Amino acid sequence: MIFTFIQRFKNFFLDVLFPPRCAGCFEEGDWLCLKCFEKIKILDVQVCPVCRKSARGGQVCSAVCKQQTNLDGLLVAAFYHENLILEKTIKRFKYRFSSALSERLGEILTKVFSRTFKLQNVKAILTPVPLHNARLKWRGFNQSEFLAEFVATKLNYPWQYLLKRIHNTPPQAKLSKAERHQNLQDAFEIINFKIELPPFVILIDDVAATGATLEECAKVLKNNGAKKVWGLVLARG
């Protein structure tokens, strides 16, 4: 992708002028050193994405909760504001692309996924939450794409874009919970209406704040034939 190449080229010179420092210990040389990477603790217990009560494998826990979401489950590595190293690392990955960070963060998602599913029994396709083309041109890359590609390659799963973002909505971080859901109304659609969607889709993203983005993506996927949709994210806000 031409935008990614330009971003990497720009970051090469930025790294020469301003060498990267670890998000955890601030030592020069890497955006996240191995020592600090190992300090990132993955959640031992997953919760229902709706009521946030403990739930086996992060699945939607009850009939009442199922009526409130299109997701069948959500796997989360950590809570965003309770893991400072991960929070800082995600921000650096999101706004200052580093292939090294995509590998480190991808390893975290791989561990979370592997803990929940018996890999040989799960037939699923991974798909990244898409960016609008205008946002992609500005940023130069989609962080969710790199995460999805890493996890899929590591675990020998297929991955591809199934969705596209058709409205360049305001950034979710600046909105309230209610505004976030309204902001994403009809923001996504299937990338190719002629393809038959796989029965099990896993949405990949970096952070789920209120879950509004994943929810809207899951709705579109299920309206177009997907039977089961899960989310897999690094952190939940």
Assign the CATH topology: Rossmann fold
* Span between termini: 30 Å
If strands are numbered along the chain, what order do they take across the biggest sheet?
A: 1-6-5-2
Task: Please give the largest β-sheet.
Answer: 4 strands, parallel
Order of helices and strands: HHHEHHEHHEHEEHE
Low-confidence stretches: none
Which key features would you list for this structure?
237 residues; alpha/beta; two-stranded antiparallel sheet; 9 helices; single chain; Rossmann fold; 4-stranded parallel beta sheet
Write a structural description.
- This protein has 237 residues and is of the alpha/beta class.
- The strands form 2 sheets. It has a 4-stranded parallel β-sheet, sandwiched between helices.
- 39% of the residues lie in helices and 15% in strands.
- The mean pLDDT is 85.
- The two termini are 30 Å apart.
- The chain has one domain (43-236): Rossmann fold, CATH 3.40.50.
- It is built from 9 helices and 6 strands.
- It is globular, with a radius of gyration of 17 Å.
Topology:
Layout: H1 2-17, H2 34-37, H3 63-66, E1 73-79, H4 84-95, H5 99-116, E2 125-128, H6 133-139, H7 143-155, E3 163-165, H8 177-183, E4 188-190, E5 200-208, H9 212-223, E6 228-236
Helix pairs in contact: 5-7
What's a quick, concise take on this entry?
The protein contains 9 helices and 6 strands. It is an alpha/beta fold and 237 residues long.
